[in-house]
Amino acid sequence: MRRLAARLPRRDIVFVASAAILLVVVAMALSAPLVFPGGPWEVVGPPMARPLSDGFLLGTDTIGRSLLSGIFYGARVSLLVGIVATALPFLLGMLVGAVAGYYGGVVDDALMRLTELFQTVPHFMLALVLVAILTPSIGSIIIAISVVSWPPVARLVRGEFLTLRNREFVEAAVLSGRGDASIILREILPNALGPIVVMASLMVATAILLEAAISFIGLGDPNLMSWGYMVGASRTVLRTAWWVSVMPGLAVFLTVLAINFLGEALNEALNPRSALGTMR
Amino acid sequence: MCAFRYVLGRLVKAFLIVLAVAILNFLLIRVAPGDPATVIAGQSGDADATYLAQLRSDFGLDEPLPVQLGIYLQKLAVLDFGMSYRERRPVADIIWERLPSTLEITATAFLLALAAGVLLGTLAAVNRGGVWDRVSTAVSLIFYATPLFWVGLLLVLVFSVELNWLPAFGRTTIGGPESGFPALLDRLRHLVLPVLTLTLFYLALYARMTRASMVETLDMDFIKTARAKGVGRRRILFVHALRNAVLPIVTLAGVQVGQLLSGAIIIETIFGWPGLGLLAFNAVLQRDYNTLLAVFFVTSLLVVVANLIVDGLYLLIDPRTGARA
Lengths: 280, 325
Known about the structure:
- The complex is a heterodimer.
- By secondary structure, chain A is an all-alpha fold.
- Chain A has helices at 2-7, 13-35, 67-103, 105-120, 123-134, 138-149, 151-165, 168-175, 180-217, 227-234, 242-270.
- Chain A contains eleven helices and no strands.
- The relative contact order of chain A is 0.15.
- By secondary structure, chain B is mainly α.
- Chain B contains 13 helices and two strands.
- In chain B, a hairpin with a 4-residue loop joins strand 1 and strand 2.
- The mean pLDDT of chain B is 80.
- The interface between A and B is large, with 49 and 59 residues.
C-alpha cells in the first residue's frame, strides 16, 4: 500500500486538483444536514434567483429552492450510488468470473453466455426498464445499475483466473488437498487484483453517470435530491434560467472527471505498462 | 467451409441471445406491478374490463406459465407487441414509424465519431507525448466524463439560445418548407445539435481505443520491416498499421451500438426528436411497460444485428477469423 502511494503522481497538478475535487464532494455529502438543516426541498427565496444574488451562491431553482443546498444533498446520492452500485456488481462479477475461470468447461460456457447476454442488451435501456418496473427508489436504481455493470468484471476476472489456474503455486495448493473456495480466495484472487481494482474506479464514474441519467429521465428516487433530477426538472427553463440546469450538471461533470483522472493515476501506478489501455 | 461454420455459429449464437432477451422480457412483465393483463394493456389501473378480458385470452394469461411463454414467444417471433392502449394501434406500427428517426441520428453520429476518433487516435499514437497526443487525451477524458444530457443542454444554450444559429427541437420546422432544397436544409439544421452531442461522447471512446491499439501495432516487427524496406510513412500508417489496429476498434464499435441506442434516449428527450428514445421516455412517464419492453426488445435486436455485421467484417478484415472459430 505504501509503495502504491509512493508511485502516485503527488506533484502533478491534475492529480492534486482531482483529489481536491473529490474531497470537496465527500465533504459536501457529509456536511449537508449541518449546512442546510432545512433539507434540499425547502423553498428559501424567489424562484430562479441568479447566482450570487440575494445571498444565493448558485441561485435558486424554478420554485425557489437553493441550488447549493440541492448540490450538497445530491452529492450524497451520487456518492452512495457510486460506491454501492460499484461494490455490488464488483462482487457479483468477481464471483461469476472466478467460478467460470476456475472450473472451466460447461460451467464456464454457461456463465459466459449469460455474461454475453447482459453485455449485448443496451445497458441504459435495461436499467430504465428495471427501475420503472421495480418502481423508482434509490434501491431499485442501485439494483438496475448493478445488473447492467457486472459483465466486464466477470470477463476480466475469468481471464485472470484462466491464466493463473495452471500456474505452479495453484497446482501445489490443489495437490495439498485444499478446498476450491480457499484456493480461489486465498491463492488466485490476490494475484488477479491489480487490473480489477483499476476497473473499479471506472465503474464508480459510470455508476454516477448512470444514476444522473436515470434521474434526469425522471426515474430518480422521489424522496432524494439528485443532480440528474435537478437538471431534468429545470431543462424546460433553460432559455430563461440557464444556471438551474448548468450548475448541477457541472457537479456531475467535475466529480466524474476527478474520479477518471484518479483512476488513470491509479492505473499508471499499478500497471505502468498498460496505462491508457484500460478505458473501455 | 471454415467460414461457413463460423457464420453458422454466429447466427446460432445471435438467435440464442434474441431468445434470451425475449424470455427476459416475459419475466419482466410478470415482475411489473399490477396483473400482467394491465401491464400488457400499457395502463396501470384504468383499462376497461372487456379489453383486459380479451388480452387475457389473447395471451393465454389463465394458462400455466410455460404455455404463456410459448404464446408470448410466438407473438414476438412475428414482432407482435400488442396494442398501445393510449394510441389505439399496434405498438409495432409505432415502432416502425419511429425507427428511421433513431437510425438517422445514431448512424450519422456513429460514422462521424468513428472517423474523427480514429483520426484523432492515430495522430495521438504517431506523436506520442506530443501536442496531438495531449489534445486527444484531454478531449477523451473530458467528454468521457460529461453526462450526455449536460453536453446536449450546453450545446442548446450556446448554439440555439445565445447565437440562435440552430434549432433545438424536433426533426423539422413545423409549418416550414416541405419539399426541395429548403426542406433538406431544414432537416440538416435540425440534425446538427443532436448528432453533435452524441458524436462528442463516442469520439472520446474511439480516440482512446485507436490510440492504444495503434501504439501497440506501431511497435510490432512487421512495421519495422516495412520501414526498413523503405515503405512510405503514410502508407505504413494507413495501410499496414491501421489495418491491424482496426480489429479492436471494430469490436468496440459492435459493443457500443447498444450504448449508442441508449444515448439516443437522452438525446431524443432533450431535442424532442421523434424516435424510439422519445417513445421510451414517454412510456416511462406514462408507466406504459408494454411499449417500454417492446422498445427494449427492438433495440436489443438492433444490437444483435450490428454484432452480426461486425462478425462479418471480421471475416473480411482478418482472414484468420474462419480458421480460428
